[in-house]
Write a structure and sequence with these properties.
alpha/beta; Rossmann fold; 2 domains; six-stranded mixed sheet; five-stranded parallel sheet
Length: about 375
């Protein structure tokens, strides 16, 4: 009997290592519903990429860690994702303060920080070469909101903001937007993040005879303020920014009380199948979920995932963190199918899209 040498025995081909993508977000607490919706959008596309064979034969693995919206936990999670999980890129982090807490580490390591769910100026100026921001800035959202209110004859605009980096950035942007119309805030009230203790703020709004209120907060606080204003007899037009979480806001208000509340949005209407990327998003959400449901937050996650995989593909079969950063910078004009991302020298903000949504008596359906 002849024995073949070990060298002559054909070994099974070793599968290429996975590409790990890291995320830290508030998967517990008041914003958990919003974080999970964003994650569902990410997974809808990553699952499809894996079904097709991955990126250059390498499967994608999303590792999502809970930070409860606490910047210290975000920093701890980021270290774990970078140092222990060897993430090739980071995606879908929530919060202005959370992003600011990890930026020094992101820049030191040289890892792509993709589509953070914030439009704060701190991530855009000065130029942050590792930050690839998909959504429009808060200034762009607020400019659109204020322009709409002024055209509608609502000049007594109050501002209710949470007391953190997001709220501070939003308040500064609102004052700037109002000043373009020679206006100042009718009232300014600060509340703690996720607080439902909004009665004092509501009374300030009513005392100022405000006919519009810009709420810069999470849906927990915005819904509480809405209930308080309704109880006090105010019929001021309420407007929110996109991070509020539209699904959570509707769930937190009694039937009919959400009617007419406005929310600025930074991605296309998730029910408009005439937009090719929206049609694809709906199809893949149906494949992933037993009972498909669509929304702005999951669509934002889906679009962010599409953007990241375009860069990973361009980075080649042996990507490094530096190659992925370079790939992003080379994707200067990317059309995902009706949603365009344009990067310019010294400016990594991909989109300036802002649309206004007003809630009705019924939810949009599939």
């Amino acid at each position: 009997m002849l024995l073949r040498s070990a060298a002559a025995v054909k070994q099974p081909a070793k599968a290429p290592p996975e590409l790990v993508i890291g995320q830290s977000a508030p998967f517990s607490g008041a914003s958990a519903q919003t974080a999970k919706s964003y994650q569902e959008g990410l997974l809808a596309w990553f699952s499809e990429v894996n079904r097709r064979g991955g990126i250059h034969g390498r499967r994608l693995r999303l590792i999502s860690l809970d930070d409860r919206y606490e910047p210290k936990l975000t920093l701890r999670n980021t270290r774990q994702l970078i140092e222990h999980q060897q993430a090739i890129a980071l995606i879908g982090f929530f919060g202005t303060a959370n992003s600011k807490a990890i930026l020094p580490l992101v820049e030191k390591v040289g890892i792509s920080y993709v589509a953070p769910r914030t439009g704060a100026k701190a991530l855009l100026r000065p130029y942050r070469p590792m930050v690839f921001n998909m959504r429009a800035s808060y200034q762009a959202e607020i400019d659109r909101v204020i322009d709409h209110l002024v055209r509608d004859g609502r000049h007594q605009v109050a501002v209710v903001h949470i007391k953190d980096a997001y709220g501070d950035d939003g308040l500064r942007s609102t004052k700037k937007a109002l000043a373009r119309h020679d206006l100042k805030p009718a009232a300014v009230a600060g509340v703690m993040r996720d607080s439902t203790n909004t009665n004092a703020a509501a009374r300030q709004v009513v005392a100022a005879n405000a006919n519009a209120v810009l709420v810069i907060a999470t849906f927990t606080t915005s819904a509480s303020l809405s209930r308080d204003l309704y109880r006090l007899g105010s019929r001021a037009q309420l407007m929110n920014l996109s991070p509020v979480g539209i699904e959570g806001l509707q769930d937190a208000l009694p039937a009919g009380q959400a009617n007419g509340i406005g929310i600025s949005q930074v991605v296309p209407f998730p029910w408009n199948r005439r937009v090719p990327v929206v049609a694809q998003y709906q199809q893949l959400m149906q494949r992933q979920q037993t009972e498909a449901h669509y929304g702005y937050t999951s669509l934002e996650g889906f679009l962010a995932a599409r953007w990241l995989t375009a860069a990973l593909d361009k980075a080649g079969p042996n990507p490094s963190r530096a190659k992925v950063v370079g790939a992003f910078r080379s994707l200067t004009n990317l059309d995902l199918g009706g949603f365009k991302l344009r990067l310019r020298p010294g400016n990594n903000q991909g989109s300036d899209l802002v649309e206004l949504t007003f809630l009705g008596s019924q939810r949009w359906g599939p």
